[in-house]
Amino acid sequence: MIELFKFRTEMRISFEDVDLFGLLHNAKYFSYFEKCRFEYLRNLGLIYGEESLPNVECAVVEHFCSYKKPARYDDVIEFLIRVSYIKRSSLQFQYILRRKGEEQVLTTGYTNLVWVNFESGKPKTIPPHIKDPVVEFEGDNLDKMPGNPVAK
Amino acid sequence: MIELFKFRTEMRISFEDVDLFGLLHNAKYFSYFEKCRFEYLRNLGLIYGEESLPNVECAVVEHFCSYKKPARYDDVIEFLIRVSYIKRSSLQFQYILRRKGEEQVLTTGYTNLVWVNFESGKPKTIPPHIKDPVVEFEGDNLDKMPGNPVAK
Amino acid sequence: MIELFKFRTEMRISFEDVDLFGLLHNAKYFSYFEKCRFEYLRNLGLIYGEESLPNVECAVVEHFCSYKKPARYDDVIEFLIRVSYIKRSSLQFQYILRRKGEEQVLTTGYTNLVWVNFESGKPKTIPPHIKDPVVEFEGDNLDKMPGNPVAK
Amino acid sequence: MIELFKFRTEMRISFEDVDLFGLLHNAKYFSYFEKCRFEYLRNLGLIYGEESLPNVECAVVEHFCSYKKPARYDDVIEFLIRVSYIKRSSLQFQYILRRKGEEQVLTTGYTNLVWVNFESGKPKTIPPHIKDPVVEFEGDNLDKMPGNPVAK
């Protein structure tokens, strides 16, 4: 499973993001997931500066996180990120978290995104300048159909 | 489905929690879910003051959120909350969000919690002083087995 | 000093907002201050729904907080709030925090706001529909000149 | 003034941290300040891993921020950081924010910290293993007395 994840980034768990027990707060994982998505897209040259935002028209429609082992204050976490499928108007990001230099999976998660016409509320086609680089980058690693979100 | 949710609370979506589009940020829903859990437990007299925290030994192990329609800045949101199942060492909270006074479901979500011995990492039995009031409050609404997390 | 504060609101310190020591995180005080400002303005009937936001054109230009004693997890905090001065294009909010039912001051702080034309970046006159109710509410409690932000 | 700041770090303003206007939210500056302090100390080899935290006994006692020009979504901000004074039990961090590659100062701010015996609540002496490296690093740039927090 892990070999399907071609893009990786590292982030350190900050003091502000941990809870009273010194563990990364459960809601903050989704903030880190967002940073992962932006880094993944930035890596593909998909610019997300402020001027581009009004045309983004892309909404998070589903979120999932499985917390297996906690990430702790000051841990340097390796985030493995992939797009697992991309369809006409939707795609899925998947994440695997490990402590840097360790094999054990701490967390898995996914985000389902849909491109939407914000005025009509109807789904719209993912623009080719976004879809094509993702398809090219992921190649054969893309799932044939949306299925098991993240391997156990 | 909605009639299974006996506990409700209201919260207003704050300026700080919305994104550049004026919509409640996707990660912040999980912060509101946490406030829901605390209110639910507080309503049952399950005190969660600081002195009780070292004994809590309860961990979020899975999170899910389905975003159907956005909650917006300054919306007053009605949160419907239930415990859907409670087993020896685990339980599930479910949430339904609606704008106050409206029928339309904006969001559904769930949190799976497990009681754990923080030293050994092994699951432990939910203490009766927590389990019993929950079972009594939910009554026949408790699912016979953990299944479909939140109705579509 | 405290008798100058005519508006009060209460908020409970949430689990997510405390740090590893169980204390309200220093940055989060400013989030609570913001909620205070909105509640103060809401109390005066100054509507701040989403449709009004494009016309707000009001910027935080200075922030100060003096942390004397910590607010802790699950504390119910009484926030005392006043506008201390209001000039042509600027005003100051001041805050005093105390644990509910206690005299001891935990925190003092202030926020300086300026009304700005967002296109030109120049200060603009505070609209009378905002200034007048504030002046009427605060009455003689308004400082004659901006000075000592919050009494020690 | 700026030449007094010998330590610099860069951070990108994330989507989650901006408000409805695309500007870094006023409370979030203090989160970035905290990251600055940790980076400054890490750069001096002052380890702040979890095991060291129970002995930290250091509290933020005052915070100030002057917002001159906004930092925006996706901006790469250069943070200039210094310790401006260090006394027996207290010190001050100062910050200057600029957009990377630009001269204009966006924001200035400071944090006053005091070392405290958490049991007695009394100030305690800053441990030499922290004070000495700071004094050595800042050298003659240290203010002779705590005064004007950040130059206008």
Structure in words:
The structure is a homotetramer of 152-residue chains. Chain A has helices spanning 28-43, 128-138, and strands at 7-12, 58-67, 76-86, 90-99, 105-115. Chain A is globular and about 45 Å long. A 5-stranded antiparallel β-sheet of chain A has the order 1-3-4-5-2. In chain A, a hairpin with a 3-residue loop joins strand 3 (76-86) and strand 4. In chain A, 34% of the residues are buried. The model of chain A has no long low-confidence stretch (mean pLDDT 91). With 152 residues, chain A is α+β, with helices and mostly antiparallel strands. Chain A contains 2 helices and 5 strands; from the N terminus they run E-H-E-E-E-E-H. The interface between A and B is medium-sized, with 24 and 24 residues. Strand 2 (58-67) of chain C pairs antiparallel with strand 2 (58-67) of chain D, so a sheet runs across the interface.
Short description:
The structure is a homotetramer of 152-residue chains. Chain A contains 2 helices and 5 strands, in the order βαββββα. By secondary structure, chain A is of the alpha+beta class.
